[in-house]
Design goal:
Helix content: 40-55%
Distance between the termini: 43 Å
Strand content: 15-25%
CATH architecture: 3-Layer(aba) Sandwich
Number of strands: 5
Number of domains: 1
CATH class: Alpha Beta
C-alpha cells in the first residue's frame, strides 16, 4: 500500500489544493492531507476547522483523509504514518526554490521518504489562500476559487472577527 502525505496550511482549502489531492489520489493508494503549522502564518481557521473543510472538499475521494499535525515536522509525520512520499504543489518557479530546499532537508532527515513536486493545473496557478481570504474581506464572489461550503465558512468566520 503506497501512502503519500500532502501537507499544507489549507487556510482555507481551495480548488488548487483539491486538484492536487484529486490527482495524487489517482497515483497513490492513500493520500493523507496533513494540516500543519507554519510559524510564519497566523491561520484564520483552527486545525479542526481546516480538517473539516478538507473532508468536505474531498468527500468523493475514498482514499483521501485529513489529519492534523501541529508542531511537528512533516517528514516525521510521514515516517510515523509509513508514507513513501510527500507531495507538494508548484505554482511558480519561486515555489520550486523553497520546495527543492525542503526536499533536500527532508531527505537528510529520512532518505526513505521521497518528495514529489506536482505542477499545478494552469487554471489554479494564481490561487493561494492568502489572496482568497483577502478577497473574502472585500465581499468578492469566490465561486471560481473555492467550493460554496468554503465560501460560506469564510464569510461566517470573517463576521466573527
Amino acid at each position: 500500500m503506497k501512502r503519500i502525505i500532502y501537507p499544507g496550511t489549507f487556510d482555507p482549502m481551495h480548488y488548487g489544493h483539491i486538484d492536487i489531492a484529486r490527482r495524487a489520489s489517482r497515483l497513490f493508494d492513500e493520500v493523507y492531507i496533513c494540516v500543519s503549522d507554519n510559524q510564519h502564518k497566523n491561520p484564520l481557521f483552527s486545525h479542526q476547522e481546516r480538517m473539516e473543510m478538507i473532508e468536505e472538499c474531498t468527500s468523493d475521494l475514498d482514499n483521501v483523509s485529513a489529519y492534523s499535525n501541529p508542531n511537528n515536522l512533516v517528514v516525521k509525520f510521514a515516517q510515523k504514518n509509513e508514507a513513501v512520499a510527500i507531495i507538494r504543489g508548484l505554482r511558480h518557479v519561486s515555489d520550486f526554490e523553497l520546495e527543492f530546499q525542503m526536499a533536500n532537508v527532508n531527505h537528510g532527515i529520512n532518505p526513505d521518504i521521497s518528495t514529489i513536486l506536482m505542477v499545478s493545473n494552469e487554471k489554479f496557478l494564481h490561487l493561494n489562500s492568502s489572496i482568497i481570504r483577502e478577497l473574502a474581506e472585500y465581499n468578492t464572489d469566490l465561486s471560481q476559487f473555492v467550493p460554496k461550503s468554503i465560501e460560506k465558512r469564510l464569510i461566517n468566520k470573517l463576521k466573527e472577527k
